[in-house]
Amino acid sequence: MEYLDNIVYEENIVEYAFRGTSIEYNSYSSRIYGVRVVDKGCIGIASSTSVHDFRQLEELAKKNTGVCIERVKWFNRDYSSGKYRVGRDVDLNILVNELVPGMVKSFRSHGLKAEIILVKKRIKKEIAVKTHNIYNVEERILYELYIYPYTLYLGRLLSTGSLVASPDPRNMYSLGSSESEKLLSILASQAHARRLNPVYTGRWHVILDDEAAPMFYHELAHLLQADEPIKLHYNTVLYQGLTVIEDPFYPGPLQRFFDDELYPAWRRTIIDKGVVVDYLHTRTTCMEKQGGRPGNARGLFTRSKPLYHQLVVKKGDWSLNEMLVESRRSILVRKLVEASLQGRYIRLVPEEAWVAEKDKLTPVHVTEILVPLDKLGEVITGLAKKVNKRYGFERNHSLFEVAPTTLIEARVI
Predict the structure, then answer these.
(1) First to last CA, the chain
(2) Contact call for residues 273 and 242 (beta carbons, < 8 A)
(3) Which is it for strands 297-298 and 194-195: parallel, antiparallel or unpaired?
(4) Any bridge partners for residue 350, and if so which?
(5) 190 within 8 A of 352, measured Cβ to Cβ
(6) Strands 310-313 and 397-412
(7) Nearest-CA neighbor of 239 among 318, 173, 138?
(8) What one-character-per-residue DSSP string does 307-330 give?
């Protein structure tokens, strides 16, 4: 047997939700027991919320290896060991009494209603690797703030939303304040936006600002996952100033010491000065002969997938004004409804967009922006000094992204 572990995963969530005139309190706790087995290249996993006997789960996991179809090579060394804690523990009532009323009052002063949800998560992972006599514990406290302002304007519903997070509750005040200001601006632009003239659809300079920039690089990172069938090949040349790093030590909300396969945390450069040099890897996707290393596994009770915790794109030297001047006429996008990979394109659906032309910004409705994958080497044309941050989710895994405002060329519809 190459590998055997026992897992106890605990999650305690406290939530205050402010909806109109009501204040709701909810709490939720769960504990999951799991066993992972790797035997003769087959992976078996068993987990339960009710079965606490690891021997039972181990027998079931071993049985599952007998029916596996695909055999893998398991990277069976370099395991983390220790006890770690991330986050600052405070009573959530402090934030409820101080932070939220001020936000509600601010939105009401602008004639808006708002739904605000404040969440405190306490997560504990205990993983004992029986085959290597290793024991790991991680305790994490994380605060999340969901902000959804809305209003009726000339018979239309205007709405938007944002999510911020931090392991330190003291940061929630500044995060909540800055996001509220952005959301007020977005609702104002929605109210005055007009449809983009069909004559002007086609190839455009597009400036991705605020959370639109991290979401673009989120999709780009999907092309750098070692288990994905469609990905960028090694040595693919992109914009020469582009450097992308999976950085578990960046001072964001998802700092970590090891991944879900207990590989020690390390900074992985996946694009270096415009060249693809590595992929995101797990213990089953890396090839030692090629110098590959694991370290990006996400998933305890399913086969782990290579996915980052914190993705950091290095900033450039442009200013936003230089991008506007250089492009002469462009579409400025600050917020997206959706970003996804569709066929041979990265598809971006703007929530807020502006036409920038002759020192004038005009809010417009843009249906979608298509970025061709076969021309990614030509797409990015500038990176700004301004850095944007985004906290979100992918397949129930929390993610944090840092990326500069980015000038690209794309097809606008």
Answers:
(1) 55
(2) yes
(3) unpaired
(4) 336
(5) yes
(6) parallel
(7) 318
(8) --SEEEEPP-SB-HHHHHHHHSEE
Q: Does pTM top 0.85 for this prediction?
A: yes
Buried b / exposed e over 61-79, threshold 16 CB at 10 Å, is bbebbeeeeeeeebbeeeb
188-194 contacts at long range (C-beta below 8 A, 24 or more positions apart): 189/352, 189/354, 189/363, 190/158, 190/160, 190/351, 190/352, 190/363, 191/153, 191/154, 191/158, 192/363, 193/352, 193/353, 193/363, 193/364, 193/365, 194/362, 194/363, 194/364, 194/365
Question: 80 Cβ partners below 8 Å, 6+ apart?
Answer: 134, 136, 257, 258, 262, 263, 264, 265
264, two tokens:
């020690």
Domain residue ranges in the chain: 3-191, 198-412
Q: Which two tokens stand for residue 86?
A: 């991330």
Q: Phi and psi (nearest 5°) for 400?
A: -135, 135
**pLDDT tens for the chain, residues 1 to 413:** 999 999 999 999 999 999 978 899 999 999 999 999 999 999 999 999 999 999 999 999 999 998 988 899 999 999 999 999 999 999 999 999 999 989 999 999 999 999 999 999 999 999 999 999 999 999 999 999 999 999 999 999 999 999 999 999 999 999 999 999 999 999 999 999 999 888 788 999 999 999 999 999 999 999 999 999 888 999 999 999 999 999 999 999 999 999 999 999 999 999 999 999 999 999 999 976 566 899 999 999 999 999 999 999 999 999 999 999 999 999 999 999 999 999 999 999 999 999 999 889 999 999 999 999 999 999 999 999 999 999 999 989 999 999 999 999 999 99
The answer to whether 4 and 65 are in contact (CB under 8 A) is: no
* Total residues found in the chain within this entry: 413
Reading the block at residue 73, the tokens are 């090579």
Q: What would the DSSP string read from start to end of 156-173?
A: EEEE--EEEEESSTTHHH
Please report which residue ranges of 29-164 form alpha helices under DSSP H. 54-65, 92-109
Tell me if 47 sits within 8 A of 33, measured CB to CB.
Answer: yes
- 202: its two tokens: 């086609």
CATH of domain 3-191: 3.30.2290.10
**Residue closest to 116 by CA, chosen among 188, 183, 17:** 17
Q: 400 by DSSP, 3-state: which?
A: strand
In 63-211 the beta strands, taken as DSSP E runs, fall at 82-86, 113-129, 134-153, 156-159, 162-166, 194-195, 202-208
